[in-house]
Amino acid sequence: MSEMKFKLNYKGNSYDLTDFLQNHPGGYNYLKSYKNKEVPEELLKNYHASNAAFYLMKEFSESKTRGLGKDQVEGVEDLEHLVDWSKPLLLQVGKLGSMYTTWVESPVDRPVRLFSNSFLESVTRTSWYSVVLVWVPIISFFFYTGFFSYHDANKGTSQWHVPLIILFGLCLWSIAEYSLHRWLFHLDPKTSPFLITLNFMIHGIHHKVPFDADRLLFPPLPAGIIGIAFYYLFTWLLPSHMVDLTFGGFCLGYLIYDMTHFYLHHGCPAAETFLYDLKRYHNKHHFDFKNDGFGVSSPYWDKVFGTLIYLKGLPKAINWTIPTEF
């Protein structure tokens, strides 16, 4: 398979998509008929290819050296000359000023480094299984302590409402997920170097390199700090015997969100399933509607707050599964 190449042509230029097939938002089945052929311009118009999609095409063009110069490919200006990709980016992005938003919303498919220090860099990279290994014991601990805390405060009464308290915590996470994504992660940093750097570190990097598997999940350390803040908020707002169960449900919601987010980028859900629609929905957020579609594990709050993305019908379902031989 490594010797096979998947190429297609567009306006006389050749694009090598071999290493990108598994990540292509439009699915393999929409590409396969154009292997080694010219893609009609009308096709991209019919499917309303976004500016972000055209920008991403530059990454796979065989007609230029990636990331060098101010040249244009297919009429799309290359903005990558604004930073030096051979060096850590975190201390560079703050200097982009008014160009930051345009640059960070123009996706690329390449490795990115934040820190020159190897330890700090490793902390920013997160595998899906490390998230599970960290949060499952934490969730179990709070369910355990929460149950006995509730039992001691309500001796002689039924415990049937314990699951309801956990469900309450899950619901709190759901609104927190939407709120954090919309009003913190997508906060406009204007031209402030500090806010630009902060935005890039906590979320902008994901929009810039959306296919980097090690940067899809929130690292446990900063996630833990945010979790502590929410825990103390719960201790202030809730009866003491509800705090641990609520927080356990809240953390369970976070874990479900993180695993869902990872799957939406790298999974291949079957058509006519909830996760299939959710993957299409999240892809639309990345490539078409940056200011809508903030719900990752559910679009419910998008409906409530008027940021819902409406998915258009397709002539055939998307299939992201790549055959052994293509």
Automatic annotation (TrEMBL):
Topology relative to the lipid bilayer, per the entry, is: Multi-pass membrane protein
Q: Which SUPFAM superfamilies match?
A: Cytochrome b5-like heme/steroid binding domain
EC number, UniProt record: 1.-.-.-
Write out the coiled-coil annotation as residue ranges.
none
Q: Which PROSITE patterns match?
A: CYTOCHROME_B5_1, CYTOCHROME_B5_2
Q: InterPro entries, per this entry?
A: Cyt_B5-like_heme/steroid-bd, Cyt_B5-like_heme/steroid_sf, Cyt_B5_heme-BS, Fatty_acid_hydroxylase, Scs7
In which pathway is this protein known to take part? Sphingolipid metabolism; Lipid metabolism
Q: Name one Pfam family in it.
A: Cyt-b5
| GO MF annotation, one | fatty acid 2-hydroxylase activity
The entry's localization annotation reads:
Endoplasmic reticulum membrane
What family is it from?
Answer: Belongs to the sterol desaturase family. SCS7 subfamily.
Protein's name according to its UniProt entry: Fatty acid 2-hydroxylase
Q: Which organism is it from?
A: Agrilus planipennis (Emerald ash borer)
Taxonomy-wise, where does this protein's organism fall, top ranks first?
A: Eukaryota, Metazoa, Ecdysozoa, Arthropoda, Hexapoda
